[in-house]
Amino acid sequence: MQKLNHLLLGITGGIAAYKSAELLRLLTSKGISVQVVMTEAACQFITPATMQALSGKPVFTSQWEGNVPNGMPHIDLSRNMDAILVAPASADFISKIAHGSANDLLSALCLARNCPLLIAPSMNKHMWENPATQRNIQQLVNDNILVLGPDSGDQACGENGPGRMLDPLAIMSILTALNQPKLFQNKRILITAGPTIESIDPVRGITNFSSGKMGYCLAQAALEVGAEVTLISGPTSLEPPSNCKLVHVRSAQDMFNEVKNNLADQDIFISVAAVADYRPANPSLQKIKKNSKVLTIDLIENPDILAYVAGLSNPPFCVGFAAESENIMVHAEEKRQKKKLPVIVVNHTSVMGQDHSQITILDDEGTHSLAPALKIDLARELLDFIHHKLQLSD
Questions:
Q1: Element (H, E) at 386
Q2: Of 16, 36, 74, 212, which residue is 20 to 30 A from 388 by alpha carbon distance?
Q3: Can you give the pTM of this predicted structure?
Q4: Structural domains in the chain?
């Protein structure tokens, strides 16, 4: 989908129409010009006056609108749009689109469109699960219509299950992802994420507080800009982004082995994982029993994965991460110089596990601080920075 500057927002009849007002507000706050088209049923749930106030434009509800000069709103309204989004999309409307029906303005302009169509279904769980609806949804997928959701949870009717329209923020996240320029098309990016666990015995281990969120956000952001992504992840509870190659590991040695196994032909290596620096020298094969004695564990150093990759004769472009608790910039720059990294990203250990962060990028030109933001937004900014660095080096 091309860059989203102009969007037609279609609203059909359903209680979730109230979410469309918030979605419209979010869209316009991002500078997107939005034209609203409502079905007759949608007007029973939310008024055109509300949507006009939020969009700053007249809302169209009928094929017979008199303020379209040539009398063909079903043609004119979509011609300058980058996409059409119908949210909520009722079961009835989905059936219309699946079968090519065009008996009102919104269905007619969807049929006559020359731009991508996205829908956010909203209906009772039994309507969603009905075989007829599922056949219609499959037809939309076959017709290259993007289906967003639905979500699952409590419904206005009092039942619980799939069929809820996605929350506006979730829809905005998807649209933002689709709207990213494909800066890394045909590039391969290898990312490590999460903690490692170094076994003391079969039930205990040495680990850290890394959640893996930044690494997973970078994987998602890299996919958005067209990269082929391999994500090597230590143990986390996170859902990995779809369409990436995911490799699960446990220990630092496991991660080292998988990095070497997946390193061939990679263009970029981003080492986000919080890899344990040390591991027990002699982990017990049986659970260590508690007693009154002081327990001493001898530790030996783990391999330095980032230093290994950066030290290759022809390494990929290497980006390191440094989580520090004091003298942050000094320690990070020492690490960058020691490992001969073009870029290192530094943050404070206090942000580990959080959804927000604040990072500073260090390179040969100095420091580049990014404003505090969600980690997914910081991941997108970091990839823009890396793209700029690669262009300068070409």
A1: helix 375-393
A2: 212
A3: 0.75
A4: 6-178 (3.40.50.1950), 188-393 (3.40.50.10300)
Q: Is 115 a catalytic residue?
A: no
Q: Which amino acid is at 167?
A: D
Angle at 76 between CA 62 and CA 103, to 5 degrees: 40
Per DSSP, the residues of 113-136 read -SS-EEEEE---HHHHHSHHHHHH
Task: Name the catalytic one among 157, 217, 244, 318.
Answer: 157
Per-residue pLDDT of the chain (394 residues; tens, 9 = 90+): 567 899 999 999 999 999 999 999 999 998 999 999 999 999 999 999 999 999 999 999 988 776 766 667 777 788 889 999 999 999 999 999 999 999 999 999 999 999 999 999 999 999 999 999 999 999 999 999 999 989 888 778 788 888 899 999 889 888 888 888 889 999 999 999 999 999 999 999 999 889 999 999 999 999 999 999 999 999 999 988 888 999 999 999 999 999 999 999 999 999 999 999 999 999 999 998 887 678 889 999 999 999 999 999 999 999 999 887 788 889 989 999 999 999 999 987 666 667 888 899 999 999 999 998 889 999 999 999 999 999 866 6
